[in-house]
Design goal:
Mean pLDDT: 91
Family: Belongs to the FGGY kinase family.
Number of strands: 15
Pathway: Polyol metabolism; glycerol degradation via glycerol kinase pathway; sn-glycerol 3-phosphate from glycerol: step 1/1
Number of domains: 2
Radius of gyration: 20 Å
GO molecular function: ATP binding; glycerol kinase activity
Number of helices: 11
CATH topology of the largest domain: Nucleotidyltransferase, domain 5
CATH architecture of the largest domain: 2-Layer Sandwich
Helix content: 25-40%
Protein name: Probable glycerol kinase
Structural class: alpha+beta
Keywords: ATP-binding, Glycerol metabolism, Kinase, Nucleotide-binding, Transferase
CATH superfamily of the largest domain: ATPase, nucleotide binding domain
Length: 331
């Protein structure tokens, strides 16, 4: 929680999410665990604010940010996820990418570059969703029955936190949509030709909104006696790297930020024009600060594995008992 006038950090709480590795190269997370971690962080942060004698009634808005590309499909009638979330760095879709490439003249991985800003890769949500439709019978049946909804984690959280199966708002913002390979970054709409290419039904896709508008208000948390922020509007949504760009106030053409986390990411603001790289950078939407505001674009350089290797050394190889210990070995 930040002070809106000074940007001072007033209170915070964090919870580590468990990663699951069912097979080599597969990375999953439990969507319900992600949701519960959000509820826990909200409640704990508000408890800390009360202890500091800061009135939580002064909280005027909630923002959502998320690891991009992570893909989840859920049943809108029961509110239950139909499979674990496939995490952005998961590699199971390599064979899916190879099959799709065979349908492209010259096997050109950049066939959609000027529509989406992205190359055909295991990284983006469309191929993860294609894999789920091809391999998870429950999802295939839910799509046929008109019960399935697809989203990145922001969509899942907003849908549940607003009303869930009792009328949840199924939406995403332009920054997350621009990471799916299904979104035209110029028209700011889902692209029918790309949806046809990936054979993805458009009715399961979320409505695309700006990064800054009221999507709905927070409802009472069903797993707790009360919700500290019930009734507060959810009014901001940005993919994590775009949120970092905004957080560092890189609002001018040419300003850039670099972040070091699970992966490493450089984003450079290119203003209201989309710039295309010949050197491996991708083009993405940086932000759109309101329904009637223009979209701003960015060039992005991505290193998929950075902090993730620390967790792997700790959890998979057992080289260290804590992340801090890994740092000592590195030194």
């Amino acid at each position: 929680v930040f002070n809106a006038e000074t940007a001072e950090l007033l209170s915070h709480h964090q919870v580590e999410i468990k990663q699951e590795f069912p097979r080599e190269g597969w990375v999953e997370q439990d969507p319900k665990e992600i949701l519960n971690s959000v509820y826990e962080c909200v409640e704990k942060t508000c408890e800390k604010m009360n202890e500091l004698n800061i009135n939580i009634a002064n909280i005027r808005a909630i923002g959502v940010t998320n690891q991009r590309e992570t893909t989840v499909v859920w049943d809108k009638t029961t509110g239950e996820p139909l499979y674990n979330a496939i995490v952005w760095l998961d590699l199971r879709t390599q064979s899916t990418v190879e099959c799709l490439l065979k349908r492209i003249p010259g096997k050109n991985k950049t066939f959609s570059k000027f529509k989406t800003g992205l190359p055909l890769s295991t990284y983006f949500s469309a191929v993860k969703l294609r894999w789920l439709l091809d391999n998870v019978e429950e999802i295939k049946k839910a799509v046929e029955d008109g019960r399935a909804l697809f989203g990145t984690i922001d969509s899942w959280l907003i849908w549940v936190c607003i009303c869930g199966k009792n009328g949840g708002i199924h939406c995403t913002d332009v920054t997350n949509a621009s990471r799916t390979m299904l979104f035209n970054i110029h028209s700011l709409e889902w692209d029918p030709d790309l949806c046809k290419f990936f054979d993805i039904p458009m009715e399961i896709l979320p409505t695309v909104r700006s990064s800054s508008e009221i999507y709905g208000v927070m409802k009472i948390c069903p797993s707790r006696d009360s919700g500290a922020l019930t009734g507060v509007p959810i009014s901001g949504c940005l993919g994590d790297q775009h949120a970092a760009l905004v957080g560092q106030m890189c609002f001018q053409d040419g300003q850039a930020k670099n972040t070091y986390g699970t992966g490493c990411f450089l984003l450079c603001n290119t203003g209201q024009k989309s710039v295309f790289s010949e050197h491996g950078l991708i083009t993405t939407i940086a932000y759109k600060m309101g329904r009637d505001k223009p979209a701003f674009y960015a060039l992005e350089g991505s290193v998929a594995i950075a902090g993730a290797v620390v967790r792997w050394l700790r959890d998979n190889l057992g080289i260290a008992k804590s992340s801090e210990e890994v740092g000592e070995y590195g030194a």
